[in-house]
């Protein structure tokens, strides 16, 4: 579904991603792990059209998406749950979800949007309870559910998540990763960027390790979980031992 070849991203003279190559197959859950500053979020920004200064190839469904605007990339089938959630705080929960379906409203697909809203409310019952509440008053975990729901409202073929566990309590992280795992079981293709390496790999099919902008290791999630270098660098006791993958 997604193929990235020799991606190079820079901010001025600083090279944030240095020739990264990776792939995501239909139906897979792929994790990119790495320390802060390794280039993980920059890579996602390039995929989603939010970073224009890059070289290489990003092929989505056999089409080169370089030069496409973020709205065009959403229309093509990629939807992002951004780092820090970035919900529309002054809007209600229901209006945030409707914003995710903006392209569908433009096509006059009101019945489909209504059906999708029902689906999101079933997936996240708390959002139904909070439907008319201002999004900025939700808890961190509820805001993360809202951000995921908003992204799903665009009916993505590829769901991209950037650090979904950031700033959340362990119990809430456990729940969020369970939701992501269930979405994968339902057939959603997922690219997950996450510093919480153990929790991410426990629910993934494959993974890539990014260091200083370079892919230094790749393999199945099982292989990476037992790799000595990965364990030493990323799988200490502070990285998601609470999540058992159920």
UniProtKB/TrEMBL annotation:
One of its GO terms (molecular function) is ATP binding. It holds the Pfam family ABC_tran. The keyword Transport applies. Keywords: Amino-acid transport, ATP-binding, Nucleotide-binding, Transport. PROSITE patterns: ABC_TRANSPORTER_1 (PS00211), ABC_TRANSPORTER_2 (PS50893). CDD domains: ABC_TM1139_LivF_branched (cd03224). InterPro entries: AAA+_ATPase (IPR003593), ABC_branched_ATPase_LivF/BraG (IPR030660), ABC_transporter-like_ATP-bd (IPR003439), ABC_transporter-like_CS (IPR017871), BCAA_Transport_ATP-bd_LivF (IPR052156), P-loop_NTPase (IPR027417). Residues 2-237 form the ABC transporter domain. GO terms for biological process: L-amino acid transport. Gene3D superfamilies: P-loop containing nucleotide triphosphate hydrolases. Belongs to the ABC transporter superfamily. This is Leucine/isoleucine/valine transporter subunit ATP-binding component of ABC superfamily. The gene is livF.
């Amino acid at each position: 579904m997604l193929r990235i070849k020799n991606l190079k991203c820079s901010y001025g003279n600083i090279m944030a991603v240095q020739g990264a190559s990776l792939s995501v197959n239909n139906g897979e859950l792929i994790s990119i792990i790495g320390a802060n500053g390794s280039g993980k979020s920059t890579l996602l920004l390039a995929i989603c059209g939010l970073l224009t200064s890059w070289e290489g190839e990003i092929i989505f469904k056999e089409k080169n998406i370089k030069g496409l605007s973020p709205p065009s990339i959403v229309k093509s089938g990629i939807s992002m749950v951004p780092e820090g959630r970035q919900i529309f705080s002054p809007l209600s929960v229901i209006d945030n979800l409707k914003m995710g379906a903006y392209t569908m409203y433009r096509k006059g697909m009101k019945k489909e949007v209504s059906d999708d809203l029902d689906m999101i409310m079933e997936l996240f019952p708390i959002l139904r309870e909070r439907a008319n509440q201002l999004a900025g008053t939700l808890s961190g975990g509820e805001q993360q559910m809202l951000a995921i729901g908003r992204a799903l409202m665009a009916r993505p073929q590829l769901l991209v998540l950037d650090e979904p566990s950031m700033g959340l309590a362990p119990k809430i992280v456990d729940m969020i990763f369970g939701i992501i795992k269930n979405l994968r079981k339902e057939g959603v293709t997922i690219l997950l960027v996450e510093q919480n390496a153990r929790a991410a790999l426990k629910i993934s099919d494959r993974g890539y390790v990014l260091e200083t902008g370079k892919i230094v290791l790749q393999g199945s999630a099982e292989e990476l979980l037992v790799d000595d270098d990965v364990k030493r660098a990323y799988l200490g006791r502070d990285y998601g031992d609470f999540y058992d993958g159920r």
